[in-house]
């Protein structure tokens, strides 16, 4: 019995070993991706090519020079112009770095006549490898060559690959500090994509142009381009999130804080969970915009998973604005000035100086029914030569803007606060409830528009069957008429 049990255990362990030994290598997975691209090209199914791009992104950490060389030998004709050009961007392969299985390398021979989609995919694979290896000069040359090749291709099955190449083309120039050099090329590519009705390419290139302008603080030019660009339904959620983020930054600089807040919060919600850095940037700008609007963000915004450390400066800034303490606000601004400058929010924080004063004045208005302007200046810690006159002008402007509900007694130098009434007797709760309902309805409508359905193959099959039945009935009717005519004779 013990012998039988041992043999059964060995038999049970054998399949697991065979499964582990037959796991596909990275080269074999790249070959399957190439086959997927060829199938999508012949069937004209863009979804297959999109899936191939996603599989490639998951394999990018395993890419080596020898592996990319082996794939180029498989996908392209050795000695061809494209093969020679792409091989020149790669370092020379070493024998000890070869990650190619002899069993899998002999499964398929080199493709003699590769499709344009597969050729563009080879450009993309080499470009991803060069950027990951921080070989930015070679990446610039490779991306420029790929863009030159793309201008001569007008196929809908290439749109997904072209959009990725546009992104890495801009990234390679941004990493070398030459982003302004490709602005004219991006505008030309956007015009070509518009003429070819390449909506995904238009989305990608529009975002790249907006990023190009905002990188050099050219907000007016970015807004002119955005307002005159053709409108269409979003094809990619990632590109739509980027567009909302850039739109929020433009609106913030243009003092349109309400629209900026909506765009930034929507971009943060729609962004995938894996895009942590993008969501952090959205939350940073959203916090500043909400503070400029006079709102105080909730503590849970700063306690999101993975964002605590990055949002710590903005948490302390929010605390200073909430209290209305000018000294604390200045200390926080000086303490994290390097962080605010790198985030591009330093100029916005300068605007918050007036909001801090107004918040402190609002707290004073709630706490005191009557207070002298000298005490107001003292509590606000105004360090001007004539603090009482400055306090009077600040209070007057706050009353005119309806920031506080009070009156000024110029004769006695007092600020007299009015009694706070019941807020539920006003229309403010109804307005807030109506805005929440509108937001939920808008989100529902966008979710419905974003739904994707497979091709309606069932109806096509039914129509084909009905057509076949109709043809059969017509043949039977014609035969019956012919037989009747024979009978008449």
Please outline what is shown here.
By secondary structure, the chain is mostly helical.
Report on the structure:
By secondary structure, this protein is mainly α. The chain contains 24 helices and three strands. The protein has helices spanning 2-21, 26-43, 46-58, 65-75, 81-89, 102-105, 116-132, 136-150, 159-175, 183-195, 199-215, 219-228, 237-253, 257-270, 276-292, 299-302, 312-323, 326-335, 337-343, 346-367, 373-380, 387-400, 428-449, 457-488, and strands spanning 370-372, 406-409, 414-417. A hairpin with a 4-residue loop joins strand 2 and strand 3. Helix 13 runs antiparallel to helix 14, helix 15 packs across helix 20 and helix 17 (312-323) runs antiparallel to helix 18 (326-335).
């Amino acid at each position: 019995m013990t012998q039988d049990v041992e043999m059964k255990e060995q038999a049970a362990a054998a399949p697991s070993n065979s499964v582990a030994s037959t796991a596909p290598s990275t080269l074999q997975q790249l070959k399957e991706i190439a086959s997927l691209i060829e199938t999508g090209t012949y069937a004209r199914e863009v979804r297959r090519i999109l899936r191939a791009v996603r599989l490639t992104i998951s394999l990018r950490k395993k890419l080596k020079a020898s592996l990319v060389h082996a794939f180029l030998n498989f996908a392209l004709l050795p000695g061809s112009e494209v093969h020679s050009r792409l091989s020149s961007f790669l370092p020379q392969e070493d024998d000890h770095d070869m990650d190619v299985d002899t069993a899998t390398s002999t499964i398929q021979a080199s493709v003699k006549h590769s499709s344009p989609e597969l050729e563009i995919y080879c450009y993309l694979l080499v470009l991803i490898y060069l950027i990951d290896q921080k070989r930015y000069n070679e990446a610039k040359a490779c991306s420029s060559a790929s863009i030159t090749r793309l201008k001569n291709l007008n196929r809908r099955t290439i749109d997904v690959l072209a959009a990725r190449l546009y992104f890495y083309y801009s990234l390679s120039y941004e990493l070398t500090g030459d982003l302004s050099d490709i602005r004219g090329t991006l505008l030309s590519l956007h015009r070509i994509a518009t003429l070819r009705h390449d909506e995904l390419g238009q989305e990608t290139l529009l975002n790249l142009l907006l990023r190009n302008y905002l990188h050099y603080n050219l907000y007016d030019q970015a807004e002119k381009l955005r307002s005159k660009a053709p409108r269409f339904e979003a094809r990619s959620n990632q590109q739509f999130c980027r567009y909302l983020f850039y739109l929020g930054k433009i609106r913030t600089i243009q003092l349109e804080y309400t629209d900026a807040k909506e765009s930034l919060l929507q971009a943060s919600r729609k962004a995938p969970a894996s895009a942590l850095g993008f969501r952090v940037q959205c939350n940073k700008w959203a916090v500043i915009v909400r503070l400029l609007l006079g709102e105080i963000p909730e503590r849970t915004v700063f306690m999101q998973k993975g964002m605590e450390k990055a949002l710590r400066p903005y948490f302390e800034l929010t605390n200073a604005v909430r209290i209305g303490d000018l000294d604390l606000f200045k200390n926080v601004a000086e303490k994290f000035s390097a962080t605010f400058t790198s985030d591009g929010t330093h100029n916005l924080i300068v605007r918050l100086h007036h909001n801090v004063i107004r918040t402190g004045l609002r707290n004073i208005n709630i706490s005191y029914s009557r207070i002298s302007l000298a005490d107001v200046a003292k509590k606000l810690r105004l360090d001007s030569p004539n603090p009482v006159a400055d306090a009077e002008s600040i209070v007057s402007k706050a009353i005119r803007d309806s920031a506080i509900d009070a009156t000024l007694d110029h004769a006695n130098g007092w600020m007299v606060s009015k009694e706070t009434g019941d807020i539920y007797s006003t229309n403010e709760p109804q307005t807030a409830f109506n805005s929440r309902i509108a937001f939920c309805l808008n989100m529902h409508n966008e979710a419905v528009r974003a739904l994707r359905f497979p091709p309606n193959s069932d109806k096509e099959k039914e129509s084909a069957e009905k057509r076949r039945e109709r043809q059969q009935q017509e043949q039977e009717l014609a035969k019956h008429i012919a037989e009747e005519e024979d009978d008449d004779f």
